[in-house]
Amino acid sequence: MGGNPGNHSELPPFTLTGLPGLETSQHWIFLLLGTLYIVSIVGNAFILFIIKEKQSLHQPMYYFLSLLSVNDLGVSFSTLPTVLATFCFHLRKITFDSCMAQMFFIHFFSVTESGILLVMSFDRYVAICNPLRYATVLTDARVARMGMSVIIRSFCMVFPMPVLLKRLPFCKDNVLSHAYCLHPDLIRLPCGDITINNIFGLSVVISTFGVDSALILLSYVLILRSVLGIASWEERLKTLNTCVSHMCAVLIFYVPMVGVSMAARYRRYVPQYVHTLMSLIYLFVPPMLNPVIYSIKTKEIRRRLFKILLGTKF
User: What residue intervals traverse the membrane (predicted)?
Assistant: First the structure.
């Protein structure tokens, strides 16, 4: 199948893949994935509703949490159409432009989530290491600028990916390894030289995920140093407890991402189902667990959630 990058009518479609070897269980798999979608969408929508309605939650920490919830909804809605088509309706073809658009949004929201976790770590650093300056450092205007910076950075980093792919000829069978379009999967398919694509993809990973994770680690080193200066063990634990939700969010985002990267790097040595499973965990688990973690660990959200669900006063 040939593809001329200069002629949109000849751009080839792609074939989506479910879970190899489990074709007879596709409906059960979608039932599982559908449950994860429902938990993710309802959970993040609840977080946004509670923060909007409760005036006491109109603080920088919860503004960043709102941004994280919106981003997680974006991740879920980015993959939902093709996952639904593949596992429920067995529609495996996706047009070139639709695949490029989905790839853009998946990676855009992924880079954005990394940036949000970084600014949330800065919020925790200021709250613990400079509590007296918290209100003056994290003003509403500064929080808005930080959020916009994260979004603009993500757009600038991800936008060239589909542009660079579109210039290449596609002449293979164009079968993807997943029920959605990912950049590491797509760059295996062109017949032309993908050196620029590989270099750009690696530079994006290093300049976003690499830098963000290093700065998050640095912020927690500084937080830990500040906490160790507190004389009372009870106060130390109380202070660290304010970071537990964010630390869990960081772990459930970065650990699966490292797993996906390792599986892609050693593709020839790793069974295909492992690579597919890691990608599913990376895209489905963080949007589902983030609202659960913050609902459990954040007293104000937990109380409001119980009040809504049970109709009781807390």
Answer: 28-51, 63-84, 104-122, 143-165, 199-223, 244-264, 276-296
